[in-house]
Amino acid sequence: MGVRRVVLVGGAMVAAVTAAQAANLWLSYKSPPDPAGPHFGLETYKVTTSELSHQGRVLVDGVAEKYKAKRMELAEQGRNLVDGMSETYKAKSIFFREGVRGMWESVSRPEDRSQRDDFMVALQRAVARLKGSERKVESAESDDEPAKQAKARRILFIGDSLVQGVGCADGNGPTLPRKVAGFLADKWKMDVSWRALGISGGDVRQLREEVLPLLREDVAVVKSQRTSLLSEDSDKELLGRPPVDAVFLVVGLNDWKKSVQTGRSWRAFREDLHELVRDIKEICGEDCTVVLPSLPGVDFAPLFREPLRSLLRAMNARWDEQKRYLAENLKEVHFVDKPTLKFWGTTSAKVSDEFFCNDRVHPNEKGYTKWGEYLAESLSNAFRPESKKSDIVDA
């Protein structure tokens, strides 16, 4: 009886301390405001100097060979021109075109005018193919922004304050979706557009009610933009793409917080999340990938102290189990587990200084960037626009 009494008393004390911590947090915590800045954008593939130089050499060599120009002289001058473009990184397409025209004129006879024109047409077509797969060198002839957005691969983030970017103070909008798009653009070597549709404090039911209408509008705009681009044969492949390649659902934290108030269980969360995923698939197409990431902040946020931290971690894990279950049973749905301390390259005692904002709950720009890198790395092999897989990712 003595041991049992000690256990009961100890358990009661832990419960009392946990309840006091939770009550104090509930009464005193005030979330930072949503950040200023855009909630959509386009991240372009940043072609490297060596890649640009190599592509230019292949391009010039191929055209010169086809038209039987003085291959060695033309190719050498072309290499010098492309190398100069790579070094300055500020080349204009008109400079490239006029430079090649000058090369041709220096090795051609006046009566070769028709061949010279054919040469320039072939060169321009080759440049267009190059632009289709790599980031374009800026030029006065570049596509307008809506066209670039319509042609790019698209990712959307739907969720709570983490999607809104609470904790970011650089004035550039939410960091997480922007960084994930940038990392994926470099991984896939193509432009990636992004948009954040978030509600600070929102749970799955609220997101389904308030964000899905915005998603429908977004998809309608994309389809309209792509239809307007079908005047070119090369753009017809756009019709075969889903209007959104991937949707990241950053949810769960507010759901288990509200479960204390409403009594909604983890089973209800699974049903609500299933319905939200189903609706997203209905709007964006069955081939749209839905990503369900675990939320890492609960393990590290310095505001949470023991024993409250252990309780929150256990609740978060139970809600994560529902995400994993859906990923195992639904097509094109991926669960991404939270990163380990080794990934953060630090200990839990130091995370607060490096990765969290002043409220000691939400990440700062560095924290969002690190998490975004992890999400992009986890998904870059499991999900590629040209060849999707259905594996679950547990990094």
Description:
This protein is α/β, with parallel strands linked by helices and 395 residues long. The chain has 17 helices and six strands. It has helices spanning 2-28, 49-66, 71-88, 93-107, 113-133, 145-151, 161-164, 175-188, 204-210, 212-228, 253-262, 266-284, 297-300, 308-329, 341-344, 348-355, 365-380; strands at residues 40-43, 153-159, 192-198, 246-250, 289-293, 333-336. Strands 1-3-2-4-5-6 form a six-stranded mixed beta sheet, with helices on both faces. α9 packs parallel to α12 and α10 (212-228) runs parallel beside α12. The longest helix is centred in the first third of the chain and has 27 residues, at 2-28. It is globular, with a radius of gyration of 27 Å. The two termini are 46 Å apart. 34% of the residues are buried. Residues 131-143 and 389-395 have low confidence and may be disordered.
Supply the key terms.
disordered C terminus, alpha/beta, six-stranded mixed beta sheet, 58% helix, 395 residues
Short description:
The protein is of the alpha/beta class and 395 residues long.
Instruction: Describe the global form.
Output: globular
Distance between the termini: 46 Å
Strand content: 5-15%
**Reading side by side through the largest sheet, how are the strands ordered?**
1-3-2-4-5-6
Would you spell out the secondary-structure blueprint of this structure?
Elements (H helix, E strand, L loop, with lengths): L1 H27 L11 E4 L5 H18 L4 H18 L4 H15 L5 H21 L11 H7 L1 E7 L1 H4 L10 H14 L3 E7 L5 H7 L1 H17 L17 E5 L2 H10 L3 H19 L4 E5 L3 H4 L7 H22 L3 E4 L4 H4 L3 H8 L9 H16 L15
Parallel strand pairs: 2-3, 2-4, 4-5, 5-6
Antiparallel strand pairs: 1-3
Helix pairs in contact: 2-3, 2-5, 3-4, 4-5, 6-10, 8-17, 9-12, 10-12, 12-14
